[in-house]
Amino acid sequence: MLINKVEICGVNTSKLPVLSNEQKKALFERIHQGDTTAREEFIKGNLRLVLSVIQRFNNRGEYVDDLFQVGCIGLIKAIDNFDVSQNVKFSTYAVPMIIGEIRRYLRDNNAIRVSRSLRDIAYKALQVKEKLTNKHSKEPTITEIAKELDLPKEDVVFALDAIQDPISLFEPVYHDGGDAIYVMDQVSDEKNQDESWLEGISLREAMRKLNEREKHILNLRFYEGRTQMEVAEEIGISQAQVSRLEKSALAHMKKYI
Fold this sequence. Notes:
Structural class: mainly alpha
Order of helices and strands: EEHHHHHHHHEEHHHH
Distance between the termini: 54 Å
Number of helices: 12
Helix content: 55-70%
């Protein structure tokens, strides 16, 4: 995303007007009287608000022109639904509307497709969560949300997880003026931990203490995933013998691990 791009969707962002509170109030009065010219003027006077919001999404790899257009839709919805009688600044009301519109766009255009039914469950769960939070002044548990929706808890968890926006492993989560800490720095790799590495060395050393037949049996059983019956058929002994040799070999290895 070109965060310093000047012309977006044919609009020169460096020349966008800024409206005062008095101008906004006067324009809203004309808008409510059906003045379309005032509506267009109000939209142009708040495009900087859209620009400030889309800066938050500059690490998504989306075209800035697309996000700007979607943000403008959110701005127009905010204008059409704003109640001037409420003692709330327009920007306070509009920003969440613009963000919501962009997030919907990103979800709907995500490479990871989420079914409509799953999204519906998730949005209902979010609505119930807000309602219960307002009612009890505390955040409800997943169990409480599921009970309110009359759905299994697992369905609610799966639906809420499905609508989460994916983030890049290279997204910074902390910056103190020096080197940033990224998401990937906080993800553990269980396969490459020092403990796993040492365990692997210990197992190889213990295997060396076994005779060739015991090594062959353990290799077939635990590295190739064969059953005792399959091992018995391959090396020409009974399953009972395989079981006995396997237990003996494992007991012998434990002395060296």
